[in-house]
Amino acid sequence: xxxSYMLMTAKIxxxxxxxxxxxxxxxPETPVEAYIIAECADEVGLPPGVLNLVPSEREAADHLMRNxxxxxxxxxxxxxxxxxxxxxxxxxxxxxxxxxxxxSAAIVLDDFSDEEAAKTLTNTIVTLSGQxxxxxxRAIVPRHRHDAIADAVAAEMKQIRIGHSDDPEAxxxxxxxxxxxxxxxxxxxxxxxxxxxxxxxxxxxxHLESGFFFEPTLFANVKxxxxxxxxxxxxxxxxxxxxxxxxxxxxxxxDSIYGLNASVLTHDADAAAAVARRLRVGNVAQNGLRxxxxxPWGGFKQSGIxxxxxxxxxxxxxxxxxxxxxxxx
Length: 329
Known about the structure:
- By secondary structure, the chain is of the alpha/beta class.
- It has two domains: 2-100 and 303-315, Aldehyde Dehydrogenase, Chain A, domain 1; 104-286, Aldehyde Dehydrogenase, Chain A, domain 2, CATH 3.40.309.10.
- It has eleven helices and 14 strands.
- The strands form four sheets. It has a seven-stranded mixed β-sheet with strand order 7-8-9-6-5-11-12, sandwiched between helices. A three-stranded mixed β-sheet has the order 3-4-14, covered by helices on one side. It has a two-stranded parallel sheet with strand order 1-2.
- Helix 5 crosses helix 6 (146-158).
């Protein structure tokens, strides 16, 4: 829920500041937060027609995208849907900003211990059950430490308590839909068939007979050209990839159609900055999945177009106009 609020308000706020009217079209699976935002807008007295809500399936969304009264589309979601939106906007040369998929890498440097790496990577991958576009799903580690880090991550994953939202001890909940659960299961089967080592997880928790729950899952001995290392799974599945040195780690991290997010796991801020400058991604954080929504956020390559947050996020809802007038200063 909190993630959905963030996605929607990151678009609404700069649009309203810029003087635009807005149509909210939430995902069919998660419309509740948009209703609450609409109720808040009504309670504070926002004039009718300024902030509008259209919960719908695909047909209405297609109509909105093609409606000539819509000047700009701001979208967060899959790259496949983003590609469709870009095509529709391209037909009429309309503006769009797209925050799309990712296959983000966490590069572990040698000063970061196995235990620290395991805790950081595990606590990250279980956040929202791994259903975050910027999730760190590829852990790139020194080859001589690969097995030790795999053991440490597996031990941490086995300690994660999976449960329902009303369980105060639960650390990870279910996936969003049955379709998404089946998608994750498909990718796990693909990883096994392509030769990656399934270290832990990879199945539904045996103590939860109903619901779309899935265990935190670790694959080791993953090659970066494997399907599970190249395609977005959108679930609690972590791929461990061995590298020879820092240059090789950067090469592996950049070998992706995506370029949304990355992290450098190290206690040396200068080393983190040096690696970050060489990564072809829109966002890099030291030591985990981090974001500052007062700063611009967005991706390179097929991870999107444009930025949300900061001055750059506001500029996406503005047009520059030049006026040359006689006798005016």
